[in-house]
Design a protein that fits this description.
It is a single chain. This protein is of the alpha/beta class and about 300 residues long. The protein folds into two domains: about 170 residues, Rossmann fold (3-Layer(aba) Sandwich), CATH 3.40.50; about 130 residues, Rossmann fold. About 45% of the residues lie in helices and about 10% in strands. α5 links the parallel β3 and β4. The longest helix is centred in the C-terminal third of the chain and has 20 residues. It is globular and about 55 Å long.
């Protein structure tokens, strides 16, 4: 292929290149050692939907807490820019940054700035962050007072950043619980737990059990007058590397509340963007096999 032909191919949008199939192609940017987003997205994806991953080195320095990144520098990082370039040229319908902490620390401004820079590398493919998808999912589900079940490697600065972010996007009240890995992890600094292998040991049934216990604890606090305000109206599980999707449907059945995870929101948002862009709408039915969110449209998220 000549250089001119390669340049011409790279400039053609994903929609224009859709030949021979109508299945959406979901692109995701994932840190180098996170196996969870693509495995959960592939598990949830309807037949005909494909998931395509590009990786970049995690921006958290070794043995330190992550406290945010400049948005434009993040998107322009050579590994991130290369992933955006490759996913755009591959023909992805959308690209999601599966690293919510960067948005939580940077606020909605991070999302806007990251997207603006990222889309200079993605060959016309729309880019969004996991936090944007989570925000849309909360709005579509009518959740304004969630219980947030934090991953076990999040620390108080991330709790505070997450609460600030959610407040900025219109959430009324945030109650926080954290998944407990158990006594065998007590000697590991929380911010190192993910790299030490905790990403492999989270069990969906244990996520369900601990979430139910946290909901019960909130209810008891309200009865005793320890906690004021309205009751929770949904569950949010942020953290792309937190393997929690298997707990969604059981929790929704037991609590009668919407349950939203980061990876579920990324897939849902990407599918809805693909549908809006002309992909086969038959793929986007109201199935609740992976949660009630998949029966909701972006119109609800946008107030329509």
């Amino acid at each position: 292929m000549t250089a001119g032909a390669a340049t011409e191919e790279a400039s053609v949008s994903a929609t224009d290149r859709r030949v021979g199939d109508s299945g959406p192609r979901i692109g995701i940017l994932v840190i180098h050692n996170d196996p969870v987003p693509e495995t959960e997205l592939w598990t949830m994806a309807p037949p005909g939907v494909s998931v395509h991953t590009a990786r970049f080195e995690c921006p958290r320095p070794v043995d330190t807490e992550y406290v945010g990144s400049p948005a434009r520098a993040f998107a322009a990082d050579p590994e991130v820019a290369r992933g955006l370039d490759h996913l755009g040229r591959l023909g992805a319908d959308s690209i999601a940054l599966c690293f919510g902490s960067s948005s939580f620390f940077g606020g909605p401004a991070f999302d806007a700035e990251f997207v603006a820079e990222a889309e200079t590398h993605s060959h016309g493919t729309p880019v969004h962050t996991a936090a944007v998808a989570i925000t849309a999912a909360l709005r579509a589900s009518g959740v304004r007072r969630p219980l947030v079940m934090m991953p076990p490697w999040f620390t108080p600065p991330t709790f505070e950043a997450t609460e600030r972010y959610l407040t900025a996007v219109g959430v009324e009240r945030v109650r926080i619980a954290q998944f407990d890995l158990g006594a065998e992890w007590a000697g590991v600094a929380k911010y190192n737990a993910f790299d030490e292998g905790a990403r492999w040991v989270v069990d969906a049934e244990e996520v369900r059990r601990q979430t139910l216990a946290a909901v019960e604890a909130v209810a008891e606090e309200m009865l005793e007058g320890v906690s004021e305000g309205d009751s929770i109206d949904g569950i949010l599980v942020p953290g792309s590397g937190f393997r929690a999707q298997g707990a969604v449907v059981p929790l929704e059945r037991e609590l009668g509340l919407p349950v939203i995870t980061a990876n579920q929101a990324v897939l849902w948002y990407g599918l809805r963007l693909a549908a809006a862009g002309g992909a086969d709408s038959a793929l986007f039915g109201g199935s609740s096999e992976h949660g009630s969110l998949f029966g909701r449209g972006l119109a609800a998220a946008n107030g329509g």
